[in-house]
Amino acid sequence: QVHLVETGGGLVQPGGSLRLSCAASGSTFSINTMGWYRQAPGKQRELVATITSGGGTNYANSVKGRFTISRDNGKSTVYLQMNSLKPEDTAVYYCNYVIKSTGYWGQGTQVTVSS
Asked: What pLDDT digit, counting tens, does each position of 34-46 carry?
């Protein structure tokens, strides 16, 4: 079993920054892709960024140049550095790990961008 816990969400003003972390515990051997997704009220969950075991990254167009995903394999942790935040970035952010073709989700952390 794999358990994911996200931290780092909160309230920030437009133009501000936040760093999200997602740590995994349990059977975390051979984590493949790690990723961040978000879901705003009334909208479907959408991909924000992913990073493969080899370090390859993929970003949603809406966050390119502002967000950076990274991972620490030794700690089974993935990070999302979010800069130049906009009100439209407001959402619940979820991490996702793919381990041996099975996807696991965290419980989510709220990010609110507002003045």
From this structure: 999 999 999 999 9
